């Protein structure tokens, strides 16, 4: 976008309760609804990354979900399995997200367009006919020879390019307001009101912890372990220790597009209510009348993390002036240079495999700050909390996947995400 051109905005007509500072309903055109629906294709990590950029992030108003994302970003490289994995964690995106967002009037996605890289060694894969590993991360290592995949390739043709008490009020809505709407969708039951009157007293208090529904542990067999330290005399949660699988699971959850998270993982679990309503709205829209096609509707509802252009892509390499050149192409037929090689592209997903080193251990605070665990972590944390060593007890707590999702949901509204569910569980087990 031209930096000098004015920021695109929607005009939204809202019926507002003046005294209660509450939005009653809104009238919007398809541009606004397109932007709203596009949110469902974002992974949670993208949303958290964007929320961190709000001019006034009001992080205290979005519970401690932001802490979780920031902690994961801050994890030292020595705890990550590779630089590529750290990159994947910091750049959660899908091509799908990019395709959809590029066409929006107001696009809140500020990520760089996806770039593609192939192995730096011309002879390793392309000449041998084994296929050209393709990555969107220049820190990735070639799966054939192990060298850096840092040769940038672009599409040769343009096919990949961009193409009473109440009153009626009109509001201009730009990217910042959409981010506030997102923040509201995570932390409030009234996201539209949140967007218009951020911090308004009427907005349900985020500290009012909602009673979690019965979590259906039978729905999944996967359980994760936490070693939880509580204060004996007060049953107060102090901190938890976790192996890499618990933290890796949190990273993985944050990479899943919202629709998939809500439509598949959160089925029947009452969390992220506003986002679930948005998901239902998309499900209920009739194709033809309101939604352009079944394909688009399915894409919005099941945006599996497609990371590469799904069309057949070839890597086209040739020598010229003593060095080799490479491009991506969708055409398999052209042949107009000497020593040219066509290879199928083998997309290498930076998120595949382990994010964290298997031996890594972590400490988690109640507000979801995650730090690497050292032999001094426990003692220094007890000193900080002013709890004597003889007043603590340690419990091994098994947590189901659904319960972890409940913790994530709670973390968007509370600063004590872990203690609310875990301490209750420990007390129930003790009795
Ligand atoms: Zn290679």
UniProtKB/TrEMBL annotation:
- UniProt cross-references to InterPro entries, sorted A to Z: DUF674
Q: Which Pfam families match?
A: DUF674
**Superkingdom per UniProt:** Eukaryota
Tell me the protein's name.
DUF674 family protein
């Amino acid at each position: 976008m031209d930096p000098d051109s004015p920021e695109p905005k929607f005009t939204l007509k809202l019926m507002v309760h003046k005294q209660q500072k509450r939005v009653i309903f809104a009238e919007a055109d398809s541009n606004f609804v397109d932007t709203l629906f596009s949110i469902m294709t974002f992974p949670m990590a993208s949303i958290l990354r964007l929320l961190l950029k709000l001019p006034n992030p009001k992080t205290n108003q979005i519970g401690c979900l932001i802490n979780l994302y920031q902690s994961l970003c801050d994890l030292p490289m020595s705890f990550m399995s590779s630089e590529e994995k750290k990159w994947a964690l910091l750049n959660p995106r899908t091509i799908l997200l990019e395709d959809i967002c590029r066409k929006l009037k107001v696009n809140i996605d500020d990520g760089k367009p996806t770039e593609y890289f192939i192995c730096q060694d011309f002879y390793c894969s392309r000449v041998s006919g084994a296929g050209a590993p393709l990555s969107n991360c220049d820190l990735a290592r070639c799966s054939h020879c192990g060298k850096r995949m840092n040769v940038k390739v672009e599409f040769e043709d343009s096919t990949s390019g961009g193409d009473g008490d109440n009153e009626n009020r009109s509001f201009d809505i730009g990217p910042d307001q959409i981010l506030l709407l997102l923040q509201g969708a995570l932390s409030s039951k009234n996201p539209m009101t949140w967007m218009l009157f951020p911090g308004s007293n009427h907005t349900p208090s985020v500290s009012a912890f909602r009673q979690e529904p019965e979590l259906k542990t039978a729905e999944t067999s996967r359980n994760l372990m936490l070693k939880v330290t509580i204060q004996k005399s007060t049953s107060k949660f102090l901190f938890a220790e976790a192996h890499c699988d618990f933290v890796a699971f949190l990273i993985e959850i944050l990479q899943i597009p919202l629709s998939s998270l809500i439509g598949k993982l959160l089925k029947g679990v009452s969390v992220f209510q506003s986002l679930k309503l948005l998901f239902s709205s998309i499900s209920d829209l009739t194709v033809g009348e309101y939604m352009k096609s079944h394909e688009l509707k399915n894409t919005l509802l099941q945006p599996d993390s497609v990371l590469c252009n799904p069309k057949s892509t070839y890597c086209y390499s040739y020598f010229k002036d003593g060095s080799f050149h490479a491009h991506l192409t969708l055409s398999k037929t052209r042949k107009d240079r000497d020593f040219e090689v066509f290879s199928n592209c083998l997309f290498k997903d930076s998120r595949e495999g382990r994010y964290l080193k298997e031996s890594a251990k972590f400490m988690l605070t109640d507000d979801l700050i995650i730090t690497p665990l050292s032999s001094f972590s426990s003692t220094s944390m007890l000193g900080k909390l002013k709890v004597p060593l003889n007043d603590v007890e340690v419990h091994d707590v098994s947590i189901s996947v659904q319960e972890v999702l409940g913790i994530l949901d709670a973390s968007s509204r509370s600063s004590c995400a872990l203690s609310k569910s875990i301490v209750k569980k420990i007390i129930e087990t003790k009795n």
